Amino acid sequence: MKRSLIVITSVVAMAALFIIGAVVYSNKSADQSQNLAVENSAALNRFSSITYGPADAKVHIVEFMDPACEACSQFYPFVKNIINSHPGKIKLTVRYANFHQGSDYVAQVLEAARAQGKFWPALEALFATQDQWASHHAPAPETVWQYLGHLGLDFDQMRKDMNEPKVMAVIEQDRADAKALQITKTPSFYVNNKPLMKFGHEQLNQLINSELAIAYPGQ
Question: In this predicted structure, what is the pLDDT of residue 41?
């Protein structure tokens, strides 16, 4: 056998082994994530978490997000549009996985806005201005107040509420649940307790549609 043919055969064999290994690893990771979600199903669903959409919707998206996460801000309108495109069928629960510097502070502000019934407008306002207060080089979470001024919030009351034990408890519970589920990046999505394994808009859309087809057959 010529030397060149031996080299080519070796390269092809190594490439095949690499692909097989990658597939095996991917499947193993998917199984582990699914098992974690099953074993820690309580960690996905907390009564204290904020929810968007009807309570009796059969498709339930749980999103672990960081208010300073750029990808989270980009996914938010995409997810909201899907929910609004299927009225009555999908609900979203938002959980915190605050990996960025200062994100705990922003989560406290959001929970204080939630106490005044304005969590979602506050979240949208902060996502829209994220580049101004969540710079990777100089994050300034304490400046988020200036981007909420148009919402009619009572800032004095919010500054009190954001340090309430129940607010801190929500953030700490989410932190513990994210750790139990071994979440290391945001956003991380679960649809009817099934983790989104391949990250992307299309992949999330496919997972949601799959669960819609199961929950609402023939529609």
Answer: 79
